[in-house]
Amino acid sequence: MRKFLPLFEAVTVQDYPYGFNKRTTMTYHIEYKKNKGYRLGSTTVNPTTWKTNATKYSTYDSFRRLYIEEDTWYIKCGAFNPRTDDGYEKALASGIFEGITKEEYDHEYHMAICLFTSIRFMVSFRGFSINGAEVVNPRQLPTLSDEDGEILKSLDYSKILALHKRVEEEYEAFNQ
Fold first, then answer.
1. Under DSSP, is residue 90 helix (H, G, I), strand (E, B) or coil?
2. What is the pLDDT of residues 42-56, one digit of tens each?
3. 82 neighbors 113 (Cβ within 8 angstroms)
4. Same domain for 16 and 95?
5. Do 90 and 124 lie in a common domain?
């Protein structure tokens, strides 16, 4: 079970291992940078000199949030990236977006990007080449009309969701 923490609140863990036989404190925080996204920062204190070490950062994702694993009481970081993750529904089910306002994160916009990416994948795979020879895909894949193209340009989640369902059904029917 996960308990998600407030988005930009720093969390300090006492008695964190430092090397083989020393203990220190570790502070985790999430930071946001426009046009890059969210990333996790972690900072330790050197237990010998009591100076703060340099902060170590993760890579940027579309969204990150700290949570406590209630079984072990470990602090962990959940991430969502619409370009690489399985799907928005899975991220929603994890609870990562609970209590997050639209100003902090535009869920529907990123869901629309997820759907847009998967639709482009389904309609773009027409054929491939082996050793320079063109091999045509024997199964016809769905095509997008001009109206579908306009829906994709708008990035309106509710419209793209309906389009995605239709294209996915066609894709599955053609590939059986």
1. helix
2. 999 999 998 999 999
3. yes
4. yes
5. no
